[in-house]
Amino acid sequence: MQAAFRLARHSASLRASTSIRCLATTANPAHVASAPATSASSSTAKPSIIPLSNVEAQWEKMSTEEKATVYEQLEEAMKKDWKLLSIDEKKAAYYVAFGPHGPRAPVSKPGDNFKVFAGTLALMGVAGILFYAIRLASPPPPRTINKEWEEAANQRALEQKMNPITGIASEGYSGKGFVTHK
Which residues form a coiled coil (predicted)? Predict the structure, then answer.
């Protein structure tokens, strides 16, 4: 049902963007599959019925008028019971509604993966250089960040009986306390 709404919406926008209105006649599925694919030569002539078999392969080569004709054919076909549609009509409706064309067309080209990989490596290199430049320009760490000061902080915590239940002043404490340096 959503495909029908999307198809109708896309068909309406396609008709609004082109100056030529394509009118398609309702035909039975057997006639649709056997009709030749031709485009209208003038704006007053009715376009011919486009075969719905293998729409995926023909889609890129079709003109705007032929695409509009296919949309209208599919609109008429989808008004019927979906169980009565042929496999070609179902495939065409799915491709037109969800296929990789228009805004859903893949945009990657050969070599794009290498460009993304090289760009990522370059950005990581710039980030590393920036990191080490900042480290070189920064002042040395404070004098309180060394092993002697951390051991003194442990002694002070024991004197003050800091965290007597589970911490450094508790009975049987076997941790390092505030010491993080080796």
Answer: none
Query: How far lies 75's CA from each of 4, 64, 88, 89, 163, in Å?
Result: 7, 16, 14, 10, 77
Pair 102, 12: CB distance under 8 Å: no
Residue pLDDT, tens place only, 7-40:
545 554 444 333 333 333 333 334 444 444 444 4
CA quadruple 86, 88, 92, 95: dihedral sign: positive
Structure tokens at 87: 């496999």
Q: How far apart are CA 46 and CA 132, in angstroms?
A: 72
Give the DSSP per-residue string, 32-67.
HHHS-----SSSSSPPPPPP-TTHHHHGGG--HHHH
Long-range contacts of 26-34 (CB under 8 A, 24+ apart): 26/76, 27/73, 29/77, 29/85, 29/86, 29/88, 29/89, 32/73, 32/89, 33/86, 33/88
Total tally of structural domains belonging to the chain: 2
Q: Are residues 93 and 146 in the same domain?
A: no
134 within a domain of the structure (yes/no): no
- Is the pTM higher than 0.70? The answer reads no
Residue 20, domain extent: 2-104
